[in-house]
Write the structure tokens for this entry.
Amino acid sequence: MKDEIIKLLKKETEVSNKTIDEIEEADIRDFTGLVKEIGKRETEYIKASLISKNLNTAYVGKDLYVYHEVNSTNTIAKFLSQHGLDSGSVIISEKQCGGKGRSGKSWESPLGGAWLSIIISPDIDHSRIPFITLATGVAVAKTLEKVGIENPEIKWPNDILINGKKVCGILAEAVSKNNTISNVIIGVGIDVNLNLEKLPQQLQKITTTIEMELGKKMDENLLIKIFLEEFERINDLLNNENYEEILKEWRKRSYNIGKTVEVRKPYNKSYEGYVIGISKEGALVVEKNDGSLEKVISGECIVKN
Ligand code: BTN
């Protein structure tokens, strides 16, 4: 992580009176102030002032850091969460040069997207951590509905689709201290107005953007504001252990339920089955071809029809 923070500092600062060598040798704690200060500078496309204007939340997005380019907002969020940022703080970047996706994949993050990470200190039992991704998916889907997208769907566990194409991915990462989870970083990447030609060809076919679906550009600042409000609402449900309400909202928008899928898990034989629902723990319930039921809590789930 130190290397990534150094890269951010090299990119974003004139390094004032410190030389790069000094920065590289400095203790990571010394960087915190500088990293925070850069995140409070004016940026060109995504503007903290516009997101904060009329932001109707109690804690989510009250402390906002916006960068022009970082490796990954999740990395910056993790770093800052270890150095005093509170639950609800949000890190945004106009571009990412090392955006992280699920399963160690990279995440293409050119200009025109909403690339952000929210720090939360979940007040829930650790067995419920997978719920955070599900709840975030509901918040994204509701945001899309509010800006005029009809029928966004949530593909378990973390993709949001419009007309079968991916518009958003979610990567939640836990930050541990003394073997317990102190914070969770929820990384959300939404393809708002980006030019799909900037993506590798194999992604272009399976990706869409809000702009393409609405037939007009979407203001990224407004979209982020709405999302932060929806996120706070669903995070409150999570903290109040109202899992049933989250599942209800999730089921309404499920892409998987009622479909035949192939479940692929690392080190296990893949199998085919039919998705009959989602369990109260947030696992996908799959009826295998032999009639037995399997709860899928992790792994890939490829939809066949
Ligand atoms: C996936 O579908 O594979 C998850 C993609 C998550 C991408 C977001 S963009 C903001 C945040 N920072 C990252 O490096 N990744 C997440």
The radius of gyration is 20 Å. Residues 72-74, 96, 99-102, 105, 107, 109, 115-117, 158-159, 169-171, 187-189 surround biotin (CB under 6 Å).
